[in-house]
Amino acid sequence: MTEGKRCSERGEVLVTQETVPALGHMTESGTCERCGQSFGDWRIDYYVDDFNQPTDEWYITEDEYLVSTFSNSATTNSKLYANVMVDLDDNVMIFLYEYGSRQIKNSSERYWDEYNITMRTPDGADHKITGTMYCGDDRVNIDDAYIDEVLTALKGEGNVMFRIENADRTVESYMIEVATSNFAELYNAQTGQ
């Protein structure tokens, strides 16, 4: 609808309101070129400060948790929620929630948990990478030597799969599949690439 206009004294209609057909969303990449609304699986968010106010430090994450599976000595192929996050410092982190609610954490004050990860790209190639969950941490951090490899996969097309295995307790494994969707567009916009 257009705005229209009435006389302020008599209330007469001076300009009639008209219905204007919606233009619709224009997108090839998952984000509307007219309004900026994202239709992909990824979104931009911001870290918050001590007052729970957003900072200018961004990160990219999925809109919803990935529903996947995990196995350990007590269960096989049980429900796993996972979340992948990439921040402005190019840290790539994976959060894991066993049974959909119990977050995997390293409660040790002295030891890191190391993970062997196989990343399968859409072309079927398996990439051997590693990750670390530091003391008191709640995420698997992709080790620096492999960050570019993971970012390249996430900026590609199709789905990227990760099989994450605890290096010391190989009976613990996590399987997740990530749709790359609009990741490249958001990442390139944030980094100016």
Tell me the structural class.
Answer: mainly beta
Q: Major sheet, described briefly?
A: 8 strands, antiparallel, barrel
What is the quaternary state of this protein? single chain
Instruction: Return the average pLDDT rounded to an integer.
Output: 88
Treating each run of at least 4 consecutive H or I residues as one helix, how many helices?
2
Q: Radius of gyration from the CA trace?
A: 23 Å
Morphology call: elongated
What is the end-to-end distance? 39 Å
Beta-strand portion reads 35-45%
- SSE order in H/E notation? EEEEEEEEEEEHEEH
Number of strands: 13
The order of strands across the largest sheet is 5-6-7-11-10-9-12-13
In helices, the fraction of residues equals under 10%
Poorly predicted sequence stretches spanning 5 or more consecutive residues = 25-31
General description of the model:
This protein has 193 residues and is mostly beta strands. Helices cover 9% and strands 41% of the residues. The protein has helices at 147-154, 183-191; strands at 5-6, 13-15, 42-48, 54-62, 66-71, 78-87, 92-98, 102-103, 113-120, 126-133, 140-142, 159-166, 173-179. It has an eight-stranded antiparallel barrel with strand order 5-6-7-11-10-9-12-13. A two-stranded antiparallel sheet has the order 1-2. It is elongated, with a radius of gyration of 23 Å.
